[in-house]
Amino acid sequence: MFPEDPDLDPARDSLATASIPAAWIALVQRWDPVLLDLVAQEVMMRTGLWPDAEKIHDFLACLDTPSHLETVRTSETHPGIGGPSIYPPPRQRGAG
Questions:
Q1: What are the boundaries of each domain within the chain?
Q2: 24, 17 contact by CB (below 8 A)
Q3: pLDDT tens series, the chain, 96 aa
Q4: Global model pTM greater than 0.85
């Protein structure tokens, strides 16, 4: 499904990986119909019931922070990458 490039530059690979959370957020924020339909179909297969699109969106929107998608900061997992992490600190429960 995804093209494999054996000569892929590690910096480019890192950039692509770092862009995954932003791509996820964009899909959720624009109510991507394919994404919503995939989740609805899975719920339908499991329960026999078709869920409300707004409830799916609300659930997915709770996953919109990079801390949900990346539990360890890039600078910690890749010590060779200098500078601050591209991810904000995880939100504290009950704060804000």
A1: 29-66
A2: no
A3: 556 665 667 888 888 888 888 888 888 889 999 999 999 999 999 999 999 999 999 888 887 655 544 544 555 555 555 555 555 566 666 655
A4: no
| In contact, 87 and 70? CB cutoff 8 Å | yes
Long-range interactions of 86-94: CB distance < 8 A, separation 24+: 86/18, 87/21, 90/65, 91/65, 91/67
- Please state, in angstroms and as integers, the Cα–Cα distance from residue 47 to each residue in 42, 58, 61, following that order: 9, 19, 22
The answer to whether 78 and 72 are in contact (CB under 8 A) is no
Rounded to whole angstroms, what are the CA distances from 95 to 25, 42, 66, 90, 92? 21, 33, 17, 11, 5
